[in-house]
Write a structure and sequence with these properties.
Elements: E1 6-8, H1 14-25, H2 29-34, H3 40-56, E2 61-64, E3 69-74, H4 83-97, H5 101-111, E4 121-128, H6 137-152, E5 156-160, H7 163-171, E6 175-181, E7 189-195
Parallel strand pairs: 4-5
Antiparallel strand pairs: 1-2, 2-3, 3-4, 5-7, 6-7
Length: 206
């Protein structure tokens, strides 16, 4: 089987890849924990859409050609968010999270204690349509950034909320640097994971 075509996402891809992420994250435990039950699917879709739009401005979204798998990254030292997008984020994030916003933000801060202090790439979200999982597509859409990390000597990081996500991260070369539980309710485990670049910045696997 030939390797899938993976490329940077473009603005016309936003509806399709946002829908892919929303469908992929629908059964992720974080989604049911973080988002109020009322209108959860709509809240999740909007969260995915805004994540894609924010990363698209820094050329940090990668997708398969068919949109079945997508990875959303935050680059090291990102530029300020455009004013119009910031206005939308300030308006829509409280609507999406509702009463869950304080505990979600506090939990993110707890998990981030294990992330690198130096500039690094942050994997914001990765998702693959259920019918195409277990074919290595998530690894493929993450590969361009991880190869760049190796070439430039920059670490990558992510936050995981299930042991399955931790196992996937370990297969990509990430290691757990901090383990905690979500704030206030302690309902979910949370792990910070870091992937150090290959020695000498010559590429390869960490």
């Amino acid at each position: 089987m030939s390797a899938p075509v993976v490329r940077p996402a473009r603005r016309p891809d936003v509806p399709r890849i946002s829908a892919t992420l929303a469908r992929a994250w629908a059964d992720y435990r974080w989604s049911s924990w973080a988002l109020p039950e009322d209108g959860r699917s709509q809240r999740l879709h909007r969260w995915c859409e805004l994540a894609v739009l924010q990363a698209l401005d820094t050329d940090s979204v990668w997708t398969t050609e068919d949109g079945a798998s997508v990875a959303v990254w935050a680059p090291p030292s990102p530029p300020p968010i455009a004013a119009d997008l910031q206005t939308v984020l300030d308006r829509d994030l409280p609507r999406m999270l509702g009463s869950r916003q304080p505990v979600v933000l506090a939990s993110e801060r707890l998990a981030e204690q294990g992330l690198p202090e130096e500039p690094h790439w942050r994997l914001v979200a990765v998702g693959t349509l259920a019918e195409q999982r277990h074919a290595g597509l998530a690894a493929e859409v993450c590969r361009p950034v991880l190869e760049r990390c190796d070439a430039e000597g920059v670490p990558a990081a992510l936050t995981a909320y299930t042991r399955l996500a931790v196992t996937w991260g370990q297969r990509q070369g990430f290691a757990v640097t901090h383990a905690t539980r979500t704030a206030v309710d302690h309902e979910l485990p949370a792990w910070a994971m870091v992937r150090r670049p290959a020695s000498g910045g010559q590429g390869g696997d960490a």
